[in-house]
């Protein structure tokens, strides 16, 4: 189980990264940023940091790592086909449940 202090540190890091990317644009750049690369970088940086912080928990929060991998794979495929958050989440949870059920029934 993750301690409360670890979760608060994670939230503080996410806040700092999100705030820093927005503050850099407001404080140091006086005119609109025209570079597509820099605009894209500043836009996607908070999402990538969040994904990096959440991904290990997705794999290791299940009873068996292969069920976490299967759930992640299903979620990635459905997200690639632009399904909504609820169907992706429900399908990933169902996949984890079924894989772990099969593993414990066959083991």
Textual characterization of the structure:
The protein contains four helices and no strands. With 107 residues, the chain is mainly alpha-helical. Helix 1 (4-28) packs antiparallel against helix 2 (36-60) and helix 3 runs antiparallel to helix 4 (85-106). The model has no long low-confidence stretch (mean pLDDT 87).
Instruction: Provide the gyration radius in Å.
Output: 18 Å
- Total beta strands: 0
- Largest beta sheet, briefly? none
- SSE string, helices as H and strands as E: HHHH
Unreliably modeled segments: none
Protein name: AzlD domain-containing protein
Organism: Candidatus Borkfalkia faecigallinarum
Transmembrane segments: 6-29, 41-58, 64-81, 88-106
InterPro entries: Brnchd-chn_aa_trnsp_AzlD
How is the topology of this model organized?
Layout: H1 4-28, H2 36-60, H3 65-80, H4 85-106
Helix pairs in contact: 1-2, 3-4
Offer a quick outline of the entry.
It comes from Candidatus Borkfalkia faecigallinarum. The protein is an all-alpha fold. It contains 4 helices and no strands.
